[in-house]
Write a structure and sequence with these properties.
By secondary structure, this protein is α+β, with helices and mostly antiparallel strands. Helices cover about 20% and strands about 35% of the residues. The protein is built from two helices and four strands, in the order βαββαβ. A four-stranded antiparallel β-sheet has the order 1-3-2-4. It is globular, with a radius of gyration of 14 Å. The relative contact order is 0.27.
Length: about 80
């Protein structure tokens, strides 16, 4: 894909995937649009990012649906 698409488009078409974005248009920390360079799985992201680090890409993970909120996780905090 060589034309910019919106973040909403990315989330709707590639839920729960990592997107490598070229020339992102930002609104603060949020991506408004950009050119999709690659769509990457969770298992592939570390190797892909290492191999393409110098290309100036921005990497973001989508969630399912149209929300672009945070990815939720459970944490256990232990104190000594």
């Amino acid at each position: 894909m060589n034309e910019p698409v919106t973040w909403k488009y990315m989330v709707e078409h590639y839920p729960n995937m990592w997107i490598a974005i070229k020339d992102p248009q930002m609104d603060g920390p949020d991506i408004v649009s950009g050119i999709i360079s690659a769509v990457i799985t969770d298992d592939e992201i570390i190797d892909y990012e290492d191999k393409h680090r110098k290309e100036g890409l921005t990497f973001r993970r989508t969630k399912g649906g149209v929300s672009n909120g945070p990815i939720r996780a459970n944490f256990i905090v232990e104190t000594a």
